[in-house]
Design brief:
Number of helices: 15
Distance between the termini: 36 Å
CATH architecture of the largest domain: Up-down Bundle
Oligomer: single chain
Shape: elongated
CATH class of the largest domain: Mainly Alpha
Number of strands: 8
Strand order of the largest sheet: 1-2-8-7-6-3-4-5
Number of domains: 2
Helix content: 55-70%
Radius of gyration: 28 Å
Structural class: alpha+beta
Strand content: 5-15%
Low-confidence stretches: 1-8, 290-315, 466-472
Length: 472
């Protein structure tokens, strides 16, 4: 039955997450064990760390390309993830050039070099990728302004201190030329810029978020990478050249771990994306045959008719009412909404049905404003609903989000206190040209209520999954 779908998905996600984290932990242990086993001399250490860096960064690049290919290169979300591909491609070029300098040309520490140009350039597209999601998270009220303020202040203080420290050390006879100091500080600034979204993401995490693991992993990637950069730069400043050449492998072990974490996060993103899409489609596919049957059995003469639901369990109890009289429909919706005690979910499936009942929707909003309940509303991503979005933003109790894409039939669905549903449907009458009839379904059957909750919750997740806003 459909009400089990959400429970199955949640349990499967939790189990898969545990398996994925275990695999990630084992992969990191294997990587470190291989280093201790193979890199017994400085020469072997250089070969191992460079090879590991190149392999892991190209793995991250490949996974990001798979993500873009699945989303579509021409789609908005595909273009958004393509910026991550560009950033990782630049990182891959930088790692390859560095490996060539060390292994091919025998340069012990090629820093700074042309490789640093590609590393620093990559911060631009990678920063765009992470900051672009702020608009979506703010729309979904996932971002806390306090976290944004604290992250900006803390990273600014950290960057300022590190830059001051580097110039102080240079003035005291550190022996570094101006180019090295500038390049080092550019890394610090770039990492500081990326740390802002990482801190905000980690601060705003919620245990109920199905993308919790994905957000943790992409944030850890930024933190680990920044740790490697800052450690490498300031280790070089604090110790002499010979000692640094012997100890720099410590920081080169950090970067492959960061890339492994990022690859895992992208892998998880793709898996959850496919699972949620399939879950939404499965719930809708199971719901629509019942609606079609109901349409065929309902005529305009049935103003109110309690019919058994042959698509659900015959033994299941629950009051079901079908109404086709327009005046009774409006009266039924208003009275039912006024009886809401805790929360209500509203899904407006298409722009078309919104335009048909625009006046009624604004009237219902006024009713809900007077109630002390939480309201979540899904609306189509359309310019014609701009006024509705502005109206919803005025009320703190209302949390709205735009559909990732419109559903396939005209309907407005209300889920009241997770105990009952109101489903307003429209269908053209074949015998009368350009004529439509209304059907309102009121149901307290658990299977029907839960199936609509499944559709709503998964449609609510999709825009956050793709971190994309439809047309405003």
């Amino acid at each position: 039955m459909l009400f089990n779908v959400n429970r199955i998905l949640t349990a499967d996600v939790r189990t898969s997450g545990i398996i994925l984290l275990t695999t990630l932990f084992v992969a990191i242990l294997i990587f470190l064990s291989l280093y201790l086993f193979l890199a017994t001399t400085p020469a072997k250490s250089t070969v191992f760390t460079n090879t590991a860096n190149v392999i892991t960064i190209f793995s991250s690049l490949a996974m990001s390309l798979i993500t873009v290919q699945r989303l579509g290169f021409k789609s908005s979300e595909g273009k958004y993830y393509f910026y991550l591909v560009i950033g990782l491609a630049l990182w891959a070029c930088a790692n390859s050039i560095w490996a060539y300098y060390e292994l091919g040309l025998g340069i012990e520490t090629p820093y700074p070099s042309i490789a640093d140009f590609f590393w620093l350039l990559s911060y631009i597209p990678v920063s765009y990728h992470f900051y672009h999601s702020f608009r979506v998270w703010k729309q979904a009220r996932m971002i806390r302004l306090r976290s944004l303020f604290i992250s900006v202040i803390s990273t600014s203080v950290l960057i300022g201190f590190l830059i001051y420290f580097s110039f102080q050390d240079s003035d005291e006879g550190g022996g570094f030329d101006l180019t090295t100091i500038i390049v080092s500080n550019l890394y610090v600034v770039g990492d500081g810029v990326l740390l802002v979204p990482a801190i905000v993401i980690l601060w705003s995490l919620r245990r109920v978020d199905i993308f919790l693991l994905h957000r943790i992993l992409i944030s850890l990637f930024i933190v680990i990478n920044a740790l490697g950069d800052v450690g490498y730069v300031y280790h070089e400043i604090l110790v002499d050249e010979t000692t640094f050449a012997q100890q720099e492998w410590i920081w080169w072990l950090v970067y492959p771990i960061a890339y492994i974490v990022l690859t895992t996060g992208l892998l998880w993103y793709n898996r959850i994306s496919v699972k949620i899409k399939n879950n939404v489609q499965d719930a809708i596919d199971k719901r629509y045959p019942y609606l079609e049957k109901l349409w065929n059995e309902t005529t305009d003469n049935h103003e109110s008719n309690n019919m058994s639901d042959s698509n659900m369990s015959e033994s299941e109890e629950g009051f079901v009412e079908h109404v086709t009289n327009p005046e009774i429909i409006n009266h039924k919706i208003e009275n039912t909404l006024r009886k809401t005690n805790e929360d209500i979910l509203i899904l407006i499936s298409t722009e078309g049905i919104y335009l048909k009942i625009k006046v009624e929707i604004y009237k219902l909003i006024k009713i809900l404003v007077d109630l002390n309940v939480d309201v979540r509303i899904l609306i189509p991503g359309s310019d014609r609903l701009r006024d509705l979005a502005i109206e919803l933003e005025k009320h703190s109790k209302f949390n709205f989000q735009r559909l990732y894409r419109p559903l396939s039939n005209d309907s407005v669905i209300f889920v009241i206190d997770s105990n009952a549903i109101l489903d307003l449907e429209f269908k053209k009458e074949e015998e009368i040209s350009n004529s439509e009839k209304k059907l309102l379904i009121y149901s307290e059957k658990e299977s029907q209520v839960q199936s609509n909750i499944v559709v709503f919750e998964n449609c609510w997740m999709l825009p956050l999954l793709h971190e994309k806003m439809p047309n405003q």
